[in-house]
Amino acid sequence: MSYRNGQRLPLEGGGALRLSVNPRARRLSIRIDARAGEAVAVAPSERRLGEVVAFARTKAGWIAERLAARLDAQPFEPGAVVTWLGRPLRLEATGGAGAARLIETDEGPVLRSGGEGEAFSRRIENWFRRAARDFLTERTQVHLKALGQAPVKVSIVDTRSRWGSCSPHNRSIRYSWRVVMAPPAVADYLTAHEVAHLVHADHSPAYWSVVTRLIGDHRPHRRWLREHGASLHAVGG
Length: 237
Known about the structure:
Distance between the termini: 35 Å
Oligomer: single chain
Number of domains: 2
Helix content: 25-40%
Largest sheet: 4 strands, mixed
Strand order of the largest sheet: 1-2-4-3
Strand content: 15-25%
Low-confidence stretches: none
Order of helices and strands: EEEEHHEEEEHEEEHHH
Mean pLDDT: 91
Number of helices: 6
Radius of gyration: 19 Å
CATH class of the largest domain: Alpha Beta
Structural class: alpha/beta
Number of strands: 11
CATH superfamily of the largest domain: Metalloproteases ("zincins"), catalytic domain
């Protein structure tokens, strides 16, 4: 049987398995997309999708447990507490239709916004996207300068499968806005990770040496994203 990138297959016990081709992948892997509520099977080429489907079937019990335990969505709503660069950030409604704005109070930072329901949520997400652009663009420029690289185009997106991506041929980098909910060092790691791909497009030892040159030991930050990434994707869902 042939499979294609993006295809979804039903899983025993409920849920779906989404097939994904990532040419940078060095091995077959299975991960849980908590936000979408599905498992994702990753292969380095479409030719190997059959292998990763067979691998996923051997992990059916583990997948079912992880899907059952996935985090519930945490919507952007008044009274919710989210994080911004690792700091707790309380959301408050102000009435009216004003854009979200950050206020420092004696109890800590508060993000106040107009709108109700989806309008409130949209304004909060727009604020996070702007904050992400400011922080990630500034850190990108720092790492570009350190490597003697020319400027790049930075885009802010909301991808579920990758925190960022780099296209050296057209000098563009895309970041998920959600990473600015992580601690600053973790968000900075992502910028170093993508800028380093301008030097090495793969994940070879030479590539990781560039990342280390930029930020030092990257392993704790990679581990943080693996362990806490699902909770970031659940926010605003």
